[in-house]
Each structure stands twice: as structure tokens, then as C-alpha cells.
Amino acid sequence: MITNLNTVSLYVRDQQQAKQFYVDTLGFELTTDADMGEMGRWIEVAPKGARTGVVLADAAAFDKQDRVGRSADVTLHCSDVHALHAELAGKGVPVTEPETQQWGTFIKVTDPDGHELLISQQ
């Protein structure tokens, strides 16, 4: 029986830049930063307390350059989407204005590699 989602991989051009964005800008925790030999580094980040992590995989090491910015659809939750929007916009992060649909209010954030993250209010 499957009990939880473990990781989602995002293929990135620059692992250090991606790590800084997810940890320093979005406030994720760095859960793993380990040497994988020829495959580079295994960098995994996650929202504080989350069971699911995001692997920031070196696109070149995995021959996945064509998937940079298009490798996954990721949806995150937050408690106050308007406050998060103001915080991220203040940091110069590419972020859409909050939008409300029948299912909730959300913003879209673009990371340095072009991955679009949908963040909705819980």
C-alpha cells in the first residue's frame, strides 16, 4: 500500500541557485545535500514539516536539459496567499496577482529555471 508521496524532481540548470531560491526565498528546509558521484549532488528541499520533498536535480547530469522549467506541475499550500504574494513581490520574485476561483485563491510563482509553482490558500 502506498502511504505517501516521497519526492518530486525538478530538473534545474544551477543547483546552487535553485537551492538558494527554495530555501532562502520560499523558506523551505534543506533536507539533503549529498554527493552522488558522477551524477552530481542530491539536493532535496521541503516545506517545514512536510513529508514530501523536492529534488533539485542537475539537468545536465541526467541528460534532461529539455525538461528544465517543464519537468513537473507542483501545487503548494499556504495559510495567507495575499501576505505571501506581498512578501515574494517585495523580494522581486516573479509572481502573479492573487486570483480567486470557486476552489480557492492562488498565486503562481516562477523559479529561476522557469518552473511555475501554484500556491493556494488552505
Automatic annotation (TrEMBL):
Name of this chain's protein: Glyoxalase superfamily protein
Pfam families: Glyoxalase
Domain of life: Bacteria
PANTHER family associated with the record: GLYOXALASE/BLEOMYCIN RESISTANCE PROTEIN/DIOXYGENASE, GLYOXALASE_BLEOMYCIN RESISTANCE PROTEIN_DIOXYGENASE
InterPro entries (alphabetical): Glyas_Bleomycin-R_OHBP_Dase, Glyas_Fos-R_dOase_dom, VOC_core
Domain VOC: 4-122
Coiled coil: none
Lineage summary: Bacteria, Bacillati, Actinomycetota, Actinomycetes, Micromonosporales
